[in-house]
Amino acid sequence: MSDFTKSIGTIIFMLAPLIAGCVGIAIDMYIARTRYFNILTDALSNSYSLHFHTALWGDSSFKSRTMIVASMSGLLLFPGYSIKKGGLDADDARRFPVCLRRAMNTSSLLLCSGLIGCLFTAAIIKI
User: Are 60 and 117 in contact (CB under 8 A)?
Assistant: First the structure.
């Protein structure tokens, strides 16, 4: 092993994307566990994707609720594209609560940046 892989900076460099992804998952889990899940389902009641994912996974278990929140977070990150593809209703997207949208967008961005960071870190270490 080289000195690069033994330094504290490298450990931080490798753990930062993992921590970002874990924080994104924690935000989704928090929304799934609290009253915000009911706010989410009420706000997206006309959206096809919510009905599809609820029928696919159900909404009684914690795991299924977290999966629904993560899916809806991805749709709300780019609402224009989701509306065009038919997964999200335009009125639902317009009337969605701002504080919940901000939390869900943050979650999606952390998950995406964590994934990209992990891939980048793996590529750097391979080189």
Answer: no
